[in-house]
Amino acid sequence: MNGNMEKIAMKVSIISIIANVVLAAFKLVAGILAHSSAMLSDAIHSASDVFSTFVVMIGIKIASKEPDEEHPYGHERMECVAAIILATILCITGLGIGKNALEFITGNSSEVSVPGMLALIAAIVSIIVKEAMFWYTRHYAKMIDSGALMADAWHHRSDALSSIGAFIGIIFARMGYVMMDSIACLVICVFIVKAAYDIFKDAIDKMVDKSCSLEVEAEIRTIVMSVDGVKGIDSLSTRLFGNKMYVDIEIRADGEKTLNETHEIAEAVHDSIEAQFEKVKHIMVHVNPD
Fold this sequence. Notes:
8 helices, elongated, three-stranded mixed β-sheet, mainly alpha, single chain, 10% strand
């Protein structure tokens, strides 16, 4: 991740922290004044997002460090570590929502208070703000190809879903139908855990050197074969390293050419791949005589 991308990630994270602190404080006051335990729980959820964003900032900061003697291939995988931590937090959040919902359904909860109108207003504000933060963070996560920032975006979405559950629960609680809150929360739990799984799987794939997609490898083959002097491709291996790509390729060239000539062909292959794929960090080209 270059310096400009790091600055974008830090800006998004700072905005996220400010929004969560303000929102958590508003929910806390609303929960207390409106006697809503659901809103108090939602306030705690928003407060936890502040910690999550700090994890993102630390992960991105470390991932953007230049290679050194102990880490000659760079630090990109630290962003994957941050994404794994966030996925774990997201999963725990979803399971916590599901646990509370089951307590209501089984009758093990002592929640009996009827929330006031302020709790409804807080839930609506939370849904709007958190959904806006989801799309805002998701946009920049895609722009800079940041798994950790994308995980943080989904944490915003989980908070929005949690607030929807709180809103439904408050509405029905005021009408006397408290069970619908629990049913809605169980559905929300499934969505949140699924998002956590997707984030976790993507981060693990990038940690264990998963190969690029077949479409990407096919495009690389097409580019290489278009280079003048390449007679064929003997092997092609790709791997993901954090949000970067590594490419190892063996090509065939005329065995009668000089070392300088075959070196120029290899350089042309290297430059052609690098020009097409911005995410490529390293390319190794080996030339075999045809």
